[in-house]
Amino acid sequence: MGDIDPSFIREPECRPQHTLNEEGIPVIDLSGMSDPSAIGEIVKAIGNACKEWGFFQVINHGTEESHAKVDAVSRKFFNLNKDEKNKVRRDIVQVMGYYDSEHTQNSKDWKESYEFVVEEPTLMPLSIDLNDNQIYEWNNKWPQNPPEFREVCKEYAKVMETLAFKLLEYIFMSLGLPPKRFHEFFKGHQSSFVKINYYPPCPSPDLVLGCGPHKDTGALVILPQDDVGGLEVRRQSDGEWVKVKPIPGAYVVNVGDVVQVWSNDAYQSVEHRVVVNSKKERLSTPFSLQVPHFTVVEPLEEFTNAENPPKYKPYNWGKFLAKKKFANFQKIEGESIQIKHFKIY
Ligand SMILES: O=C(O)CCC(=O)C(=O)O
Ligand SMILES: [Fe+2]
């Protein structure tokens, strides 16, 4: 056993063995985005990827420069000493900022993160109590150091938001819906955020996970990563863990729980995790597109009828997210809130 704190060590059955090197996750070229005659092919490829994997990679998305800047400034930030990083540490009141002890599945993840909301402030329910209508503000805690951190991050968020909307339009088109069908859900204050994940090298990578198995809760995630690798996706056909090969300049994209519910299970939000290694640090900078807190998430009427009734009960997005965040701050008994708790059949 390596010399690591026991709180990071996973139960033997949850450790990262038996991963496949399969290269099945589709890579989709977006260079035709501005050519109306190319959109059909892109939409078809995205639809097939969503059905088979819930994941795909995109290349030629046109945002490489902004990503390179956020990658560079993030490495500078995470290389600062702990005291400096702790100046922007998140807490149970201001949940955005720096942290280093996230629990997924009740074991600590081998990583540090910095999280910020795209809209400042982002409005959220004060409590998880369904009868409590009080709202409070999620604000960002921006570090003074590196000095360019805030500006670079804000620019990155703007660029990624535009790309995320475009990709969600394609996803809706692939479901046979008008591309702008989802725009009504993003009126008012959306709750999108960016999470910068830094995975230090680990002396015992076979005992820990950088990020435990989870599904993303929002609508859509765009996940740029560096060239180290470590992201793994649960293959829907047989439940095997499959490595996602880093491709220079490519972004991983996955649909989240909200698209699963909207589409009444036509598309699945797929489980994924991160393994670490003993030699190299790794950085990823996912952008999560999320609806405003007051949104009631439920299967869209286009996917339900008498023969195919809704598979989920409606749920309030803000309360769901608040509950999820709360679970991040403590080791809780049982599992945290998930969409399966709203499943009807
Ligand atoms: O670092 C990664 O590649 C994945 C991180 C992730 O899944 C998340 O932050 O939700
Ligand atoms: Fe994730």
UniProtKB/TrEMBL annotation:
Residues 188-291 form the Fe2OG dioxygenase domain. Pfam families: 2OG-FeII_Oxy, DIOX_N. It comes from the Eukaryota. Gene3D superfamilies: B-lactam Antibiotic, Isopenicillin N Synthase, Chain. The keyword Nuclease does not apply. One of its GO terms (molecular function) is oxidoreductase activity. Keywords: Iron, Metal-binding, Oxidoreductase, Vitamin C. Belongs to the iron/ascorbate-dependent oxidoreductase family. This is Flavonol synthase/flavanone 3-hydroxylase. It comes from Cajanus cajan.
